[in-house]
Write a structure and sequence with these properties.
The protein has about 650 residues and is an alpha+beta fold. About 55% of the residues lie in helices and about 15% in strands. The longest helix is centred in the last third of the chain and has 36 residues. The N terminus is likely disordered. The structure holds adenosine-5'-diphosphate and magnesium ion (MG).
């Protein structure tokens, strides 16, 4: 995960959106009133101009409109000039002054009011795209029903602290994150995960703010304050992602930085050359130069990338795909290889213990209970399967102490003073504990498609457990879809034993399986894949795969909803465990790049046409502004379509 530019957005060369990254509510509405005032005065001026013939009646109205409309552009032009930048606002102010100088009152008024109106509209549309996400927070109910010793009480959600018991009635939107204490219900998590099917919830399950309770009532122990809920973090992450500048955008900003001064220079030539060299009338050529200046606004061009990206990020978030910035989206579009972790990514991560095979002189329940003592302290999916099996068989599971994870290998600890180790054949081979007997059992277990977990007490192997994992529903279809999208290689990288990994890999149709990989091997594999085939996206669970996710060009974490670490570390976080969101994200990234290219083409083509018309003297000032407004509107309309992309 390369570090994306996290610098706060810098005001770019032009246009409304740049000034509105932190819109002060009052500032924005004052601007709205000034804009409305200017537009009204222009309309009045036109009306007066139509019923009277003498310009002296309408001229003051137009001048007033020009002045009112210029207040905000002038203010921002000065700000830009202080930073030694010539921006569109300065161009507009010059155009207005010039138009007044040659007594084109109506033109002056038209130019500023159209310009102001265009900027206002752009700011509104960009703001709407941004607020699409923040709006999710407003859906959360402002109060919750808390169960307290002496009864139920309504409390504002800001006052609720972790530990409180909240009552969620059927049909309620859940207000805070928590764990179900009692009750049973189906919860629609679509607002966060984009999953269409409701999820069953019972005691012990996590529920999330912003999701919608179905038919049952739930009592939920609150786990997070309002500001820390998963939903609040998502909103925060999307907003900061939207504020980042994507590479294309940085390029366009640089482009605009020399483009605008270049057009100013051209405008100066347009005034001076014909007048000085050819003795042409000054007024005519000054007017043409002014039109050229207005045409020079790279508005549509500068706005083209941010609206596309902001819309795409908002649309993705609605599908439960959290993209941490335009840069990641752009990189995803050019990914050639996609590598998946196996356990918990390609597979459900809910393993089953299928077999317990004690070595001679030990019993099955002894081996299972001893292993479960260590695994009860481990977070690995293998561990959960072992513990569940021990509990189901009614074994008394002790608790190991000093337990530590051996990443990619197993876990070790101490049970009643005895050293206890659970792990894969690789770990046992490294430690020289692989007895011929256990090696044979492990080979038999893996030959039948299970993953062997060996168990040792005080350095002696006492048995082998066989666990198995099922591919996620639709995983094979996703692999096929990725191939169809032109990815050259779909790879499975796993810490699991080779035979078990191969069995799942060939079932899913991946091109390559890299098994028995330690976390560092996964990092090396990602580097090797990049060297051989090009840009790599790595999909993993975000916790034990974090180094490989970081090494990839794009790191994608699955099932991030319950995991803060995954949410924070990935470039792209899939809130739910739905693999189909990966082809969706790739399609979206490519559609976004195409969208940006179309927008840039629209803006440049219109500019080019109007530069020619302006020099030829066919275009008027207000036509130039209208063309620019039109281009911006077109670009915005094209970009917001990405919000609905599926
Ligand atoms: P994956 O790459 O498939 O997600 P991991 O890197 O998490 O796998 O783990 C690799 C292997 O290490 C597992 O397949 C398992 O054999 C072993 N392992 C890891 N943790 C444990 C544990 N707590 N108990 C037993 N085996 C474990
Ligand atoms: Mg894993």
């Amino acid at each position: 995960m390369s570090t994306a530019a996290t610098a706060p957005p810098v005001a770019a060369d032009c246009c409304a959106h740049c000034d509105d990254h932190a819109p002060a509510a009052t500032g924005a509405s004052v601007r709205g009133w000034f804009t409305a005032g200017a537009v009204a005065l222009v309309a009045l001026g036109c009306l007066v101009g139509a019923i009277t013939t003498a310009p002296w009646w309408s001229a003051p109205l137009f001048v007033a409109a020009a002045l009112i409309g210029s207040v905000f552009p002038a203010q921002r032009a000065v700000q830009a000039l202080r930073k030694r930048r010539l921006d569109i606002n300065a161009l507009m102010v010059v155009a207005v002054i010039g138009a007044i100088a040659i007594r084109q009152w109506e033109e002056a008024a038209m130019v500023v009011s159209l310009f102001a109106a265009a900027q206002w509209l752009e700011a509104q549309s960009l703001d709407r795209a941004r607020k699409a996400i923040a709006g999710l927070l407003d859906l959360v109910p402002p109060e919750v029903l808390l169960r307290e010793g002496d009864g139920d009480r309504k409390v504002g959600i800001d006052l609720v602290t972790p530990g409180a018991l909240m009552i969620v009635r059927p049909g309620d939107r859940i207000a805070l994150d928590g764990v179900v204490r009692s009750g049973r219900s189906d919860v629609n998590q679509a607002p966060i995960t984009g999953e269409s099917l409701p999820v069953e919830k019972a005691a012990g399950d996590e529920v999330f703010a912003g999701t919608i309770n179905g038919h049952g009532a739930l009592t939920v122990a609150v786990t997070r304050r309002r500001a820390d809920t998963t939903l609040a973090r998502i909103v925060h992450l999307v907003e900061s992602a939207q504020a980042q500048r994507a590479p294309t955008q940085q390029f366009i900003d640089r482009f605009a930085a020399w483009y605008t001064p270049a057009v100013v220079a051209l405008a100066v030539l347009v005034v001076t050359l014909p007048v000085v060299v050819l003795g042409q009338p000054f007024d005519t050529w000054l007017y043409r130069a002014l039109v050229l200046l207005v045409v020079a606004c790279p508005c549509a061009l500068v706005i083209s990338t941010p609206v596309s990206i902001v819309s795409a990020l908002a649309g993705a978030a609605r599908h439960g795909v959290l993209i941490k910035g335009g840069a990641h989206l752009e990189r995803l579009a050019s990914v050639r290889v996609i590598a998946f972790d196996k356990t918990g990514t390609m597979t459900t991560g809910r393993l089953d213990l299928d077999e317990t095979r004690p070595a001679a002189g030990h019993s099955a329940s002894e081996v299972l209970a001893f292993a479960a003592a260590v695994e009860s302290q481990s977070e690995h999916p293998v561990a959960a399967a072992v513990v569940r099996a021990a509990v189901e068989r009614g074994l008394a599971v002790r608790t190991a102490v000093d337990v530590r994870a051996l990443p990619g290998l197993g876990a070790e600890g101490s049970v009643d003073g005895a050293a206890a180790v659970c792990g894969n054949p690789r770990l046992f081979a490294e430690r020289g504990w692989l007895t011929p007997e256990c090696e044979a059992i492990a080979a038999d277990v893996s030959a039948r498609g299970m993953s062997p977990v060996l168990v040792a007490r005080n350095g002696v192997a006492i048995g082998v457990l066989g666990v198995s994992d099922r591919p996620r529903a639709g995983a094979a279809a996703v692999v096929a879809d990725l191939h169809r999208q032109g990815l050259t290689r779909v790879v499975m990288i796993t810490g699991d034993h080779e035979p078990a990994a191969r069995a799942i890999g060939s079932h899913l149709g991946v091109d390559e399986v890299r098994a028995a990989q330690l976390p560092q091997d996964k990092v090396d594999s990602v580097a090797a894949l990049r060297r051989d085939h090009g840009s790599v996206a790595m999909v993993g669970d975000g916790i034990n795969d974090a180094p490989a996710l970081a090494a990839a060009d794009v790191g994608i974490a699955m099932g991030a909803m319950g995991s803060d670490a995954a949410l924070e570390t990935a470039d792209i976080a899939l809130m739910a465990g739905d693999l189909a969101k990966i082809p969706y994200a790739i399609r979206l990234s490519r559609a976004t790049l195409t969208n940006i290219r179309v927008n840039v083409a629209i803006s440049l083509a219109l500019k080019a046409a109007f530069v020619v018309l302006a020099v030829a003297g066919v275009a008027t000032l207000w036509m130039a502004v209208l063309a620019d407004t039109g281009a911006s509107a077109l670009v915005v309309a094209n970009a917001v379509r990405l919000r609905k992309f599926t």
